[in-house]
Amino acid sequence: MPRAATTSDVFNAVAESRRRDILFYLAPGERPVGDIVAAIGLGQPSVSKHLKVLHDVGLVHHRREGRQMLYRTNVEALRPLRDFTETFERFWNNQLLRVKQSAEAKGGKP
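Above: the chain's sequence. Below: its structure in token form.
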């Protein structure tokens, strides 16, 4: 079955590692495109394409300030990702607890 277009939802949009890099870079606050280009190490046209995808699915907002376009992460749009991973958090916690209990039962013996 073919994958959905990258602009269809947040899951497909963040499947691309460069877009995740951009989101991580924007997490602390709003940044101009030039700063994103310098930090990510991609050309401006590539960064702009990634930002368009992220904007189209609602993961980033932008505003113009003079000649600069400033981007920021839309934290609320990340909720579907958080909800998805939260589903598995109990599994991960349970697995870690079982490993800990197993190690403690062995008393540190291999």
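The domain at 10-79 is CATH 1.10.10.10 (Arc Repressor Mutant, subunit A).
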